[in-house]
Amino acid sequence: MREFPTIDSERHGKTDTLDPVEYLLIGTLHSDHAAEEIKLNISFEGKLFHNFYALKECWWQLRELINRDVPELKAQFSSELLFLFPEDPTLIEGKPLAEITAGSSERRLSRESEQIFRIVWGIARLLYHLAKTRRLNITFYQLAEADRVSLQFIRYLSSILQEKSLIKLYIGEIPTTWQDESRAMRKKIIEEWKKGLVFNDRRERSLAVRPMDRPMTAEEQVALSWITEPDAVTHTKVEEIVQHFIMWGNYEAGMTLVEHGLNQTNDKENLSFFWMKKGLTNAFCGNFSEAMDCYEMTLTFTNLAQRKSAVCMYLALLASKRLGQEQQAQAWIEKGFKEANFLEGKEADIEKGWLCNVRALSAFRENDYPTALHYSQEAFKHIKAYQGGDALHLKVNVLSNLSVLFEEMTYVDKALATWRKFESFVTQGATEAFTKVYFFRLGALQIKSGDRALGLSNIDRAYLIAKKIDDAFHACFIAQELALYACQDHQWEKAIYWLNESTFMARLFGDNHLATRLEEKRQLIKQGGKICDDGTSLEEPLTKIGRPFYPIHIPNPL
Predict the structure, then answer these.
(1) Which run of H or E residues covers position 530?
(2) Domain 425-557: CATH architecture, name and number where available
(3) Is 425-557 in the same CATH topology as 216-303?
(4) Which of 285, 283, 245 is nearest to 261 (CA)?
(5) How many CB atoms neighbour CB 187 within 10 A?
(6) Over the stretch 121-172, which tens digit does the pLDDT of each residue have?
(7) What's the topology of domain 216-303?
(8) pLDDT: is 444 or 547 the higher one?
(9) pLDDT above 80 for 228
(10) Has residue 259 got a pLDDT over 90?
(11) CB neighbours of 96 closer than 8 A, spacing ≥ 6?
(12) Pick from 503, 452, 447: nearest CA to 475
């Protein structure tokens, strides 16, 4: 067994012992002794309020080498690097990540985030490219304190750097200074996280290491200072920081600030804010009953009609979509409408629109399509006149739902006509993240309505957009669907081509299991010239891009 790497005592200064720690060995070093070896040592000790720390630290420790030897990597991953370091003048300008990816949504209580997927994928791929010609020897210390995106990143590295690098992980212990709920959340997550690691050895061993001191962002500094000096930070700033921590997946940091706020303030509206964000954090973590309790506590403190209406909508959404309690959901919607009646103008319309939208969802889940249609149309009436912000978010959601609803009711022409309402939005400068979704569904509905050639050309267009923005995840999915259409047309060579494309993309974003299944289907076609009826047949094509991003989706504990 290899010995532990030597820690540069001058670089790290005084040592602190992390004991006990769990040692996990992942991968093996290159056999090429002439290859340059790069050592990275990254500690999470005391880094609760650092977001994306492992990703940032990898860049900090590698940037001089990359600038000197492989500057093309800085250009290739410019969007991801600019997201992590928006104020770094040395980075190459690229498309903002918000233009090519979608984020998580509080209004839909959906934590799925392309943005987080892309920074995890992008920085991991940057290291993968380096590992082709160099030996990477990476040690992560005190992972019990790592932010969740860093944990996702490290687990992803463990799957793509096999046989190319040596990765050592020291779990450590959860600090006793963390508040109880954050400690409980973290204990559960670490146990689940370890199950997804790819490693070939494991043992117990203590280690002495001193974490490197890195500058915090201004927002991270404010979060830390608020803990020690609550009066030094305005509540408005605290609200902004709490929101960012939660939406960026650093739930323990967000929960720490929330609990601190609940213990520090007596102001009822401030208390209602912290209870509401505690509900959001639990909802994102999959603790739906706890989230319901927190949202109900919010209602006991707030006198703001807008907040009451929104919280009733969250409670209805949880009751319906997450807990399957449709009658309870509808009761919360009725209460929400009563609160929204105290509002006026745009504010009233937006809250009523969201309530109608959730009511439609509840009816749809009960297969009551006429009621779902009625409430979806009512939701659209409420927000039809408004543009931008929350109104745009809701409008996109409602129109998409209406199109799906018409399709389920077998009114394909109406589904297509409704979907085409997005055409002006696309031509007037929609993000490429949405444009690929638009052309995929447009093409699929055109095929269902009888215009196969035009439909296939639009799906192909969606594929090219996904490739252009390095969206390997959706490019893989779209290529699979194009392979299905080719099989339907008995165009076996074309099916093989699209399965090849899909397999390549699956391997690119790290889903080797999917890549293997796609390769099996490709071999089946090559051997028999057609799809056999033996249980391995390809499925019917889908008409909407709706796959969750697997590192973020709720079944994944991180």
Answers:
(1) none
(2) Alpha Horseshoe (1.25)
(3) yes
(4) 245
(5) 13
(6) 999 999 999 988 888 889 999 999 999 999 999 988 887 876 667 888 888 8
(7) 1.25.40
(8) 444
(9) yes
(10) yes
(11) 79, 82, 83
(12) 503
Place of tokens 């005592």: 9
Tell me how far apart the alpha carbons of residues 365 and 385 are, in angstroms, rounded to a whole number.
28
* Angstrom distance (rounded) from CA 241 to CA 247: 10
- Give me the residue spans of the domains in the chain: 38-196, 216-303, 319-410, 425-557
* pLDDT over 70, % of the chain: 86
Query: Above 60 in pLDDT, residue 446?
Result: yes
User: How much is the pLDDT for 535?
Assistant: 39
- Residues near 260 by beta carbon (within 8 Å), at least 6 away in sequence: 179, 226, 227, 230
Between CA 524 and CA 518 the distance in angstroms is 10
| Cα angle value 11/13/16 (rounded, 5°) | 125
Distance CA 240, CA 246 (A): 10
Q: What is the token pair recorded at 331?
A: 């009761």
- The pLDDT value recorded for residue 278 is 97
pLDDT at 549: 41
Polymer length of the chain: 558
State both tokens at 65. 């080498």
Instruction: Give me 243's structure tokens.
Output: 């929101």
Give the 3-state DSSP-derived string for 155-193, with helices as H, strands as E and coil as C: HHHHHHCCCCEEEEEECCCCCCCCCHHHHHHHHHHHHHH
